[in-house]
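agent: user wants the structure for Polyisoprenoid-binding protein YceI from Streptoalloteichus hindustanus. delegating to structure tool.
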Amino acid sequence: MTTARDLTPFTGTYTIDPSHSQIGFVARHAMVTKVRGAFNDFAGTAVFDAANPEATAVTVTIQAASIDTRNAQRDEHLRGNDFFDMSTYPEITFVSTALRVTGDDTFDLVGDLTVKGVTREVTVPFTYQGAATDPFGNQRLGFEGSVVINRKDYGVTWNAALETGGVLVSDKITLEFEISAIRNA
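agent: tool returned. relaying tokens verbatim.
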């Protein structure tokens, strides 16, 4: 998204299509490999006005219990008190506070990320992937972005020391977003 591009056709309200989007994460495990996971139940909207792109409003709500790392035992551990305490904090939320155009097809989305009852500001760099009209007549926009956060900043502090040094779970977690948004009628 660039200031040179005519953004007028993108003005509108959009809903994230969860069946064609992914909100995932990557953590280092045992200091030697990466474990990837995703949240399978989420919803979000974005309101964009080409005349004032900086006032873009994005909200995303993730059902924390939908965490999926392809390992049922690990997922149950993540849902419990050691990590997300999902019975007390069932949702992870993001509410944007600003959008800054940074290049021809890039922008930073700034907002408040709340995990386990702790809210911190994050800046997620995104790349615009394109627009298309699907076979059902829906106008779609695609975006990809990622940001690294420290899980301890959100009160997610459990870990185990390794005999060889280091820890079982990295403090730094990469959040990954692959978003397909449909313009509301």
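agent: one observation worth passing along. The chain has one helix and eleven strands.
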